[in-house]
Automatic annotation (TrEMBL):
The chain holds residues 1 to 180 of 1193 of the full protein. This is Chromosome partition protein Smc. It comes from Caproicibacterium lactatifermentans. It comes from the Bacteria. Required for chromosome condensation and partitioning. Homodimer. Contains large globular domains required for ATP hydrolysis at each terminus and a third globular domain forming a flexible hinge near the middle of the molecule. These domains are separated by coiled-coil structures. It is found in: Cytoplasm. Belongs to the SMC family. ATP binds at residues 32-39.
Amino acid sequence: MRIRSLEIQGFKTFPDKTVLQLQNGITAVVGPNGSGKSNLSDAVRWVLGEQNVRTLRCTKMEDVIFNGTPQRKAQGYAEVTLNIDNTDRALAFDKDEVAVTRRYYRSGESEYLLNHVAMRLKDINELFMDTGLGRDGYSIIGQGKIDAIVSAKSEDRREIFEEAAGISRCRYRKEDSERQ
Ligand code: ATP
Ligand code: MG
């Protein structure tokens, strides 16, 4: 599984449609302070279903929508798409190309799409579970995350190991069936 590209529109510092193509190997993002580098990793977290506004460095979800500048008016919605190469079927979805989209309107309405078909957040979470890339994955290590892992309570740390070992899905299924 590999991220091919990230498409952003109306999200934080990106009012216009911006496409970031990721080639094989390492991609580095450079730019002046406040130019939107961290907003790119926020966009990845967000499209994967992040619900915690603090993790997204916002105070409310509406803050992810481009809020205007003296030259540009604010946008009505934010949209991010993550295009993933799934030729190795690391995601349990029988397509070589997987596109996950999240859209959020100022009205508070929100949508998730998988290859242009509307999905529930639950479906997106389940798709990425145990891959390390999902909302609770460890593929995005933010500033301070290492400290948090080292000083975490043992139960919290176990969740990280469970995701890495690929058993989060089993635990989730068990807990989900117990809830029903
Ligand atoms: P640094 O080098 O300091 O880490 P950075 O390149 O990572 O900077 P970001 O944190 O990605 O910068 O971007 C911060 C900028 O994003 C701030 O200027 C902030 O005003 C802007 N920003 C955040 N949310 C929005 C929004 N909804 N609309 C417009 N701009 C926004
Ligand atoms: Mg930054």
